[in-house]
């Protein structure tokens, strides 16, 4: 995950401050030295780091902070606010034309993910009840037009193309007219990239810009490129006057410096981030939420939004009823896993829960998607009767399930044992919350139930 190294380093720094009743200027200076090193290692621009540290230090050594009851927490709050400002302060929303269609021009170097990002943006707009038109303006890269057409088919969005023999400027002009004629309220123009910034590329983009007068010029930047991403943004911004940046591959093994530098260096807000290969793996960029994630404070707002848009409310109610009545089966368990998977990779979900990011580093906790895959394989290897009535799964059936799922007998036994424990806990919880169970009894039993519980099945 992006920022994982930075997040760990910063959390270690601030855990020392939290434990202090009083904080001296030397404590602040030492913490800021460590923060500075952490940011530089994350590939954040040197000038950006220098300014950031100066601002935090200035606000952290004031009398109000030093004399406060919890100075460590106040300093963390200052860092949180400055990180938020560094990335833009607040969410920068997509522009909207006074008269449709709104024209969005996607630019960037080859390999940054412009075509895929164009499809993801169209999908995001569809969720908001818009009717986007994708325009295939990249006539140079082999199969670029075909790729956009395939993406359009997948999300059921129209794609305008004139093949690879017409000039990109003409394609953009006719695409815009096509959108006006067919009632599309957004036009997303996928343009060609190069392996490096060159004048020929910029001149073609300037001509497209002059002819379609876009409401948005979004630079698609591969966050894996680190500091180079900022240099690219500077070049494009000086030639095209960018309106925003889309950071791709933010879920990759990246240091994340681009996200912390690009706004400060170019003045262009980060408007979107992509966190996976799926077409719905794109979300608006919220600086305050990203700062909170980096500092290990979680991002419950984004998690709630994901849940609201991906989880079936009726299924959730039915699942809750089954849990209360101890009718929960392995079939229900599979359904529940499917619902969780819709939220995205498990490590991303944990990053959004305050304090849970560190769970990934604990030796006794498995939270990877491969582990979930093994669990699913075990359950899929059961017969319908076995899923509905786990009590009937004897030793010979367990051996068959292990062989069928490509797992060990020990893994099958572990899953069934923990599933039984989970059902028993559900029953206890349901009983104690009933008419005979009081609040104190419930709290006492909850403490006992929590002992020895491991997450997830391992």
Automatic annotation (TrEMBL):
Segments passing through the bilayer: none
Keyword Hydrolase found: yes
Subcellular location: Cytoplasm
Domain Signal recognition particle SRP54 helical bundle: 2-87
Gene3D superfamilies: P-loop containing nucleotide triphosphate hydrolases (3.40.50.300), Signal recognition particle SRP54, nucleotide-binding domain (1.20.120.140), Signal recognition particle, SRP54 subunit, M-domain (1.10.260.30)
Main location: cytoplasm
Entries under CDD domains matching the protein: SRP_G (cd18539)
Enzyme class per UniProt: hydrolase
Chain ranges of the AAA+ ATPase domain: 100-301
Its EC number(s): 3.6.5.4
Top-rank taxon, per record: Bacteria
Domain SRP54-type proteins GTP-binding: 101-296
Reaction(s) catalysed by this chain's protein: GTP + H2O = GDP + phosphate + H(+)
Record: residues binding GTP: 108-115, 190-194, 248-251
Keywords on record: Cytoplasm, GTP-binding, Hydrolase, Nucleotide-binding, Ribonucleoprotein, RNA-binding, Signal recognition particle
Family affiliation: Belongs to the GTP-binding SRP family. SRP54 subfamily.
Assembly and interaction partners: Part of the signal recognition particle protein translocation system, which is composed of SRP and FtsY.
UniProt comment concerning the protein's domains: Composed of three domains: the N-terminal N domain, which is responsible for interactions with the ribosome, the central G domain, which binds GTP, and the C-terminal M domain, which binds the RNA and the signal sequence of the RNC.
Function: Involved in targeting and insertion of nascent membrane proteins into the cytoplasmic membrane. Binds to the hydrophobic signal sequence of the ribosome-nascent chain (RNC) as it emerges from the ribosomes. The SRP-RNC complex is then targeted to the cytoplasmic membrane where it interacts with the SRP receptor FtsY.
Name of this protein: Signal recognition particle protein
